[in-house]
Amino acid sequence: MSDTPAPPSGDASPGGDGDDGSGSAAAGEGPSDADLLAFARAWTAMAERVNQLVPPSTELAERVRDHLGVDPAELPSVGEHLPTVERPNLQLALDRLVDGQPHAEVIGLSPEIAHYGGFSLAAMLAGRFRGPAEPVPPSYDQVPIGVDRNLRCVAAGLWLLRHDGEPVVIGLVPRERHGPPGTGGLRVEVFAERAETAQTTSEVLGELRRQVNVYRGQVLGFSHGEYGDFGLRFLERPTITGAEVILADGLLASIEHHTIGVGERAGELAARGQHLRRGLLLYGPPGTGKTHTIGHLMSAMPERTAVVLQGPSVGALGQAAAIVRALPPAMLVIEDVDLIASERFMGGMEGTNPLMFQLLNEMDGLSVTDDVLFVLTTNRVDVLESALVARPGRIDHAVEIGLPDDDGRRRLLRLYLQPTGHTVTDLDVVVDRTAGVTASFIKELVRRAVHLGVDAGREVDDAILGAAVTDLLDGTVPAVRAALGAADGLDGHGDAGRPGG
After folding, report:
1. Which three-class secondary structure state does DSSP give residue 284?
2. Fold exhibited by the domain 406-484
């Protein structure tokens, strides 16, 4: 006998009283899954039949047919998917192709076509697309091409023009993102009577995109996108002279020789078989001037494309490396590289870091003639992966940016006080009281002194500068003093309580 108890007498079986197994709902209940499925199938069939009965728009196909001289439905297209960041380059390349062609025409398409899965211009011109296929006036988007500079770009459209005397049609439509990063972008298709003409036009368009690339010579950063990917943003190029970089004797000259100097001699070095890719590591405590030094390098090499990765944007390493490879001379800056390139065996546990391996591959994968400079910074050089720092050709030059000595602090005070209109006559007292602080501390000291001077209604003088030192060293909580680079236990008289202070 079965151990399964029988249902109580009179209980309805699944589907209710009198259920014949068809899946019909009992009286008073909602539709069953089977009912909903049958309705969905009928609705889909009806929609497909309606699409068949409604004739497709022919105006667009007719205008393209008149231009090409053949039915576009019979022509294969040469297509290419491009990332969204290529949009301004594509617009400028199309403008170049159109330039000098008085009879060239731009036909607008509805941007809504991006919402239709499986859309292609070939399907539209062949009459197989049942979405918005009527020609419309072109619509435009303002796309950044620099800091506070935008370019008007066609949202979606067809360009009717000629290449080498033959009529061609170039189509651009956005691709809507329906999945993970990289699934959006642009779809470009080229039509011509001869396949060779379409292919050649596509290649010329690609070459023009490279020639007019709006990212060349720019300073670029990355920001998080809506779908977890990274979008490019334009940054101001710093304007920092060598006189504004206060380092220990000889350090700045060695850095400039390895970076600026190699760039200036790139042609001669390449002619003698020397590789131009190189790596610079700047290490030392926070606030000592590593980022400031990098700003000077960007200023001194204004023609060099620079891509900056810091914080979460290090996840865009692959995109950043692709940019510097495509736009030499270039430099890739990775701040706090220890976040991705820590020693794999720390704590006695072997681990893996995909970003670290990607960084190594990017540095090794460059051609010997690629004038690409990697500039890395870290506050913790001791934890860096040995594969990164121990192999020549990855990090060729490492420079410690340490705490400023007495002369360095004096020069920093002069640098930051110079534009304030101060009347300070004796810097030695302040230099003595600030032993063991960072360059960032000196900058904040002068800023605070200026505020005190404004409150007192006079210029920064010896008394106000001294009061600012006391304010920072005695009146600031330890965490803030540490953030500014003051040594633990350093008081307003310059006495450090730490060993060796």
Report:
1. coil
2. Helicase, Ruva Protein; domain 3 (1.10.8)
